[in-house]
Every structure is written in C-alpha cells, then in structure tokens.
Amino acid sequence: MITCPHCGRQFDEKNKPRGKWYFSNYWVIFALLCAGPFALPLIWFNPNYKSITKWLMTFLVLIATVFIVIISIKLIVILVEQFKNLMQIVN
C-alpha cells in the first residue's frame, strides 16, 4: 500500500495517484524537439528529475541551440551569396 504524504490516505498500487501528464519523459522530449530552449522550464519544474539531470539537460539544450543558430547563420549567408550569383547571371 502507498500512503499519501499529505492526507494519509492509502492507495492500492493500481489506484496510486499519477503525476502531471506534461512531466512524463515523452512530453518533455516532445517539447524539447518542438520548442527547444523554451521547454527548459518544463525540465526545471519537473519533480521527477534530480538537480544534476536538470543541469545536464539544460547544458545540452543550450549547446544544441547555439550549434543550430551558428549553422543557420552560415546557411543563410550561403543562400544570399547564391541568390546574388543567380541575379548576376539573369541580368
């Protein structure tokens, strides 16, 4: 039996209270893939993660974000150069 720490009520294993749906690993990963660093509060407010896990995930998300921004800037510069070359050929 599981006892609620707040009210002292006892629960069976099948009737135990579940956490919030947005704190499941599936939704945290989904949010990180869709929103990137904007999903970091979801990690930090998650009671299931230890402090070291929160710091590690934050570090990895920030490194990935910086990498994606740098690659995006380089790709935009290449795209602008190609567009200029195309415009010179057309004129």
What percent of residues are in strands?
Answer: under 5%
Q: How is the biggest beta sheet arranged?
A: 2 strands, antiparallel
Helical residue percent band? 55-70%
Count of alpha/pi helices: 3
The string of secondary-structure elements, in order, is EEHHH
Q: Tell me the number of structural domains.
A: 1
Give the oligomeric state of the chains in this entry, treating copies of one chain as homo and distinct chains as hetero: single chain
Mean pLDDT: 88
| Total beta strands | 2
What is the spatial order of strands in the main beta sheet? 1-2
Broad structural category: mainly alpha
Distance between the termini: 80 Å
Shape estimate = rod-shaped
Supply Rg: 23 Å
Describe the model:
- By secondary structure, this protein is mainly alpha-helical.
- It has one domain (2-90).
- It is built from three helices and two strands, in the order ββααα.
- Strands 1-2 form a two-stranded antiparallel sheet.
- The longest helix is centred in the C-terminal third of the chain and has 40 residues, at 51-90.
- The chain is rod-shaped, with a radius of gyration of 23 Å.
- The model has no long low-confidence stretch (mean pLDDT 88).
Write the layout of secondary structure elements.
Elements (H helix, E strand, L loop, with lengths): L1 E2 L6 E2 L13 H11 L4 H5 L6 H40 L1
Antiparallel strand pairs: 1-2
